[in-house]
Each structure stands twice: as structure tokens, then as C-alpha cells.
Amino acid sequence: MSIDDKTAAHVAKLARIKVEEDALPALAQEFNNILGFIEQLNEVDVEGVEPMVSVTPMRLKRRADEVTDGGMPERILANAPDAREGFFAVPKVVE
């Protein structure tokens, strides 16, 4: 598939990119280069190749999914404007 100036102008309009008339041939050539590269990638045989998360094999660090208090309630409550009996104290909203 080859991209001409008219198609390049249409793509630029869809992307809401202002392209001057004299820059359209260069843009069309860039699109053609990109499509050529994609065609090269389509020629690669990937049958039986497992998808990768990363280029280096590594396991993700995991921790147990446990509910905790954070292990530092004093440090957390130190940031509170008002704390009582180990909890955040807030003004009464509903009577």
C-alpha cells in the first residue's frame, strides 16, 4: 500500500495536525517508510514464540495479600491534626 499526498493530508486532518502543502510529500514518504517497516515485521516467523513481559526473564516481587494497620500507627497519626485513642478524630458532621 502506498500513501499519496492526498491520503497524507487526510491523515493529518484526522489527527488535527496542521501540515503545510509543501510538507505533504515528505509526510507521505514518512508514512510509506513506516508501512514498509511494518511489512518487514509481518515477514518474521513468530510461530511458537511465547509473548514476553520484559526482554530479561525475571519474576515479579509479590507479597502476601494481608490486611494490616501498616505497622506504624504512631507515625501515621503524627500527621493528623487531631487524633484520639489511636484513631483520626474528625468534626461531627451530622447531628
TrEMBL record:
GO molecular function: asparaginyl-tRNA synthase (glutamine-hydrolyzing) activity; ATP binding; glutaminyl-tRNA synthase (glutamine-hydrolyzing) activity; transferase activity
GO biological process, one term: regulation of translational fidelity
Keyword S-adenosyl-L-methionine: no
InterPro entries noted in UniProt: Asp/Glu-ADT_sf_sub_c (IPR036113), GatC (IPR003837)
Keywords: ATP-binding, Ligase, Nucleotide-binding, Protein biosynthesis, Transferase
One Pfam family named in its UniProt record: GatC
UniProt EC number: 6.3.5.-
Reaction(s) the record says it catalyses: L-aspartyl-tRNA(Asn) + L-glutamine + ATP + H2O = L-asparaginyl-tRNA(Asn) + L-glutamate + ADP + phosphate + 2 H(+); L-glutamyl-tRNA(Gln) + L-glutamine + ATP + H2O = L-glutaminyl-tRNA(Gln) + L-glutamate + ADP + phosphate + H(+)
Entry keyword annotation includes Ligase: yes
Gene3D superfamilies with a match to the protein in the record: Glu-tRNAGln amidotransferase C subunit, N-terminal domain
UniProt family annotation: Belongs to the GatC family.
Stated role: Allows the formation of correctly charged Asn-tRNA(Asn) or Gln-tRNA(Gln) through the transamidation of misacylated Asp-tRNA(Asn) or Glu-tRNA(Gln) in organisms which lack either or both of asparaginyl-tRNA or glutaminyl-tRNA synthetases. The reaction takes place in the presence of glutamine and ATP through an activated phospho-Asp-tRNA(Asn) or phospho-Glu-tRNA(Gln).
SUBUNIT field: Heterotrimer of A, B and C subunits.
Protein name as catalogued: Aspartyl/glutamyl-tRNA(Asn/Gln) amidotransferase subunit C
